[in-house]
């Protein structure tokens, strides 16, 4: 489907797109507070990130839904999260360690923190969205997400993601997300903003959904 306002054509990704999309993910996430925390050495980071995002993209193609653009300039990895949430694969820790080597403990810690604070309500989870750095600030990422949002709106399904910086946080607010209580990663880690896009047909604004660590507060 082509977004008329931006001219961006969105389609579902296939295995044939893997190499191009790994590069987009690795380059788009290369800089930033989370990257600096996960792999402080930039030289190591480039190698580790390519292996890590090869694993992440493969998992998304097998277990989730992956959207891309006609020119492979952007990618979004979504996971339907029914209630109760699915349990992780027993093979994932070993695969993560093989991909990230000595940095595996921080990658595993990041996964654990994200999962602990994950909403318990049914939703679609945006695990990753990335745009080729040379093509950012052209509305490509927004068009890619809006494509999936329209599908969610048709079935009255919320969406959830984590924003790792204020710039991205503001983009998601413009796309209909609300910020919830933030997370601060351990060992001098950065702040992560939890973002929730509620059901579009709700009679009134919803409170931020509860997670395992953050009990639901009564409405006032």
From TrEMBL:
Keyword Transferase appears in the UniProt entry: yes
Record carries keyword Transferase: yes
Coiled coil: none
PANTHER family with a match to the protein in the record: GNAT FAMILY ACETYLTRANSFERASE (PTHR42791), N-ACETYLTRANSFERASE DOMAIN-CONTAINING PROTEIN (PTHR42791:SF1)
InterPro entries for this protein: Acyl_CoA_acyltransferase (IPR016181), GNAT_dom (IPR000182), Trichothecene_AcTrans (IPR052523)
GO molecular function list: acyltransferase activity, transferring groups other than amino-acyl groups
PROSITE patterns: GNAT (PS51186)
Top-rank taxon, per record: Bacteria
Pfam families: Acetyltransf_7
UniProt keywords, alphabetically: Transferase
Domain N-acetyltransferase: 62-200
Gene3D superfamilies reported in the protein's UniProt record: 3.40.630.30
Name the UniProt record assigns to this protein: GNAT family N-acetyltransferase
């Amino acid at each position: 489907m082509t977004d008329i306002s931006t001219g961006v054509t969105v389609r579902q990704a296939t295995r044939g797109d893997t190499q191009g999309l790994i590069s987009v993910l690795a380059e788009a996430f290369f800089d930033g507070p989370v990257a600096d925390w996960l792999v402080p050495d930039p030289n190591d980071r480039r190698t580790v990130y390519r292996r890590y995002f090869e694993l992440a993209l493969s998992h998304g193609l097998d277990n989730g839904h992956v959207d891309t653009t006609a020119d492979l300039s952007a990618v979004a990895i979504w996971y339907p999260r029914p209630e109760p949430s699915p349990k992780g694969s027993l093979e994932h820790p070993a695969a993560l360690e093989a991909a990230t080597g000595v940095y595996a403990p921080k990658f595993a810690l990041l996964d654990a923190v994200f999962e602990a604070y994950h909403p318990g309500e049914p939703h679609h989870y945006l695990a990753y969205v990335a745009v080729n750095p040379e093509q950012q600030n052209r509305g490509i990422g927004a068009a890619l997400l809006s494509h999936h949002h329209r599908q969610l709106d048709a079935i009255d399904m919320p969406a959830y993601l984590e924003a790792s910086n204020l710039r991205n946080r503001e983009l998601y607010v413009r796309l209909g997300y609300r910020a919830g209580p933030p997370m601060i990663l351990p060992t001098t880690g950065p702040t992560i903003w939890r973002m929730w896009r509620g059901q579009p047909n709700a009679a009134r604004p919803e409170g931020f959904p509860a997670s395992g660590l953050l009990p639901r507060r009564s409405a006032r």
